[in-house]
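Protein in question kept underneath.
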Amino acid sequence: MKRSVLAGLALVGAVGLALAGCTSGGSPGGGGSSEPAPGGGGDGVITVGFAQTGSESGWRSANTESMKAAFSAENGFNLVFNAADNKIEAQIAAVRGFINQGVDAIVIAPIVEDGWDDVLTEAKDAGIPVILEDRTVTAPDDLYASWVGLDFKKEGVIAGEWAAENFGDTPTNLVVLEGTTGSAPANDRAEGFNEAIAGTQIKLLDSQTGNFTRADGKTVMEGFLQKYGDTIDLLYAHNDDMALGAIDAIEAAGLVPGEDIKIISIDAVRDGMLALIDGKINFIVECNPLLGDLAAGLVRDVLDGKAVEKAYYVEDQSFTPEQAAAVIDDRLY
């Protein structure tokens, strides 16, 4: 699969034009409309249906705001927004609704990878191009025009390499808070991390889904603590929100997060970065949520008949507490 890599986008809101071959529809503006314009695309306005996963995390909220700003009326778009509350059936139904409304293009952040073939075929038959944003699908790639997002496996590898470097030579008991079961980030972050710690003395005690939410992260961590107690040395959380929930559970158990139990997380949203600076998290791998300008540029290019790559990867950073403290004041999320 052809792909392009976009590097250095910690301030991606200011460099949304970095996507090669794509043009932004102007400077980001306000939130999108919830109703389509009659006839879709009238008066040069591009009507776009965006099927979001939900609002499960701080990362997702930042991603939604980025998308709404990019697909704003000021930028020449009419955004039909739907958040599926992490219910795949509701998300597929929303996409079918976009097709029936006759939107000009559809953008999807798929909740899970599987189960998309039929509705993507329906969009293709209707002549409506689909752009995937953030997450990927297992459907044939001729059913969508392009994808823009992050390299989830590489994120897992970076997290695992840090774990291996710092704990790989010492017997270390690990627990994992997984993301939504069947989602691309959960699958890939697990695969990358496991590859990086292979052959080390890090031992997996348990791994369960926390559904990318703070509440479930806390609940699952409480269960880990009840079962394994202070024998847990290391926690790997697939996102910051679950790590933050786990911190609450660790503190309630009378342990010190970041000391008694070391914590690795992925996202680098503000609350996670603040916990990193405070020493409650030990290492964070970034997953940049500000993909709106890039997605909007892709939509314009596809509708204009321009050639686009099948995949565009935004390059992530990683942070220690000291590195987080140096950049926190300039972060956009």
